[in-house]
Amino acid sequence: MKKREEFSFLKGTLKQLAKLNQSVNQLIQNLNNDKLYAINYANVKGRFLEELKNYKNNPELIDIDEFSMNYSFGYHTCNNIDDLLSKQAMFVEVKSYLNTLNLRA
Question: What is the pTM (predicted TM-score) of this model?
Answer without folding.
Answer: 0.65
